[in-house]
Amino acid sequence: MVTVVAVFAIAIPLFMIFEDKLIYFPTKGGVGPSPGEEVWLTASDGVKIHGWYLPHPQARATILHLHGNAGNLEDRRDLVRNLRDLRVNVMAIDYRGYGKSEGSPDEKGLNKDSRAAYDWLLTKTTADKIVVHGESVGGGPACELAATAPCGGLIVQSAFTCARDMAPRVLPWFPKWLVRTKFDNREKVARITVPKLFIHSRKDEIIPFDMAESLFAAAVEPKECEWFSTAGHNDLTISQPKKYYSRLEKFLERFGK
């Protein structure tokens, strides 16, 4: 019993110290030339953030894509090109610590990075034409941005209800109330009044489908959902590209044909 207590006494503080390293898995460097324009942003705390901007000559809206917790922009090269083909401008950033961006990732930092991208887009378009697209962990800064700044729409893809709800699934023995990272998406979607599209797979092996159902139930109208039956967490656009992009196309029709 003493040994167990000692292990917990050591493990819990270590988890709290290294919490961010258990959430974010960035790949530094390895980002090739932008398929559009190279963009450099400065977050409100002075951290330099790298991004790609892909303009479309007949854009009906602009998607701000906030990616998941692993890799970097290079892994999203095909995605941003395909999004642009939906007749939208696309802005995609690497959070701090990812790709060419400076710093180290944490919740506050990701929120600052997404806000810097949003502010930059306001020099190109109007807030009502910006659609925030958060994938997985990116759902956190996406929901925060949509809850605190005007926008035209929100797409929440493969996201969790809140970071603390994920803790028991990753480390069942760790008290979730000790997790400092919040990303409380469920609380935020309940007060985001712009049109929202929730996308998730029933076969998601990382973020359980019941979290998507909980998010959708908590969200206020207007809201839509698309549940996939066979794709995993990371391969929605690979295993069912036609259905995926067609669903986004339908959501974007509100900004013009």
Helix/strand order, N-terminal first: HHEEEEEHEHEHEHHEHEHH
Distance between the amino and carboxyl termini: 66 Å
Instruction: Outline the biggest β-sheet.
Output: 8 strands, mixed
Using only C-alpha atoms, the radius of gyration works out to 18 Å
Report the sheet-strand fraction. Answer: 15-25%
Shape estimate: globular
Order of strands across the biggest sheet? 2-3-6-4-7-8-9-10
Please describe what this structure looks like.
With 257 residues, the protein is of the alpha/beta class. The chain has one domain: Alpha/Beta hydrolase fold, catalytic domain (Rossmann fold, 3-Layer(aba) Sandwich), CATH 3.40.50.1820. It is 36% helix and 20% strand. It is built from 10 helices and 10 strands. It has an 8-stranded mixed beta sheet, sandwiched between helices. Helix 4 crosses helix 5 (139-148). The longest helix has 16 residues, at 2-17. The radius of gyration is 18 Å and the shape is globular. The model is unreliable at 4-11 (pLDDT under 50).
Provide the fold topology.
Layout: H1 2-17, H2 19-23, E1 25-26, E2 37-42, E3 48-54, E4 62-66, E5 70-71, H3 77-84, E6 89-94, H4 107-121, E7 130-135, H5 139-148, E8 153-157, H6 163-170, H7 185-189, E9 196-201, H8 209-218, E10 223-228, H9 236-239, H10 241-252
Parallel strand pairs: 1-5, 4-6, 4-7, 7-8, 8-9, 9-10
Antiparallel strand pairs: 2-3, 3-6
Helix pairs in contact: 4-5
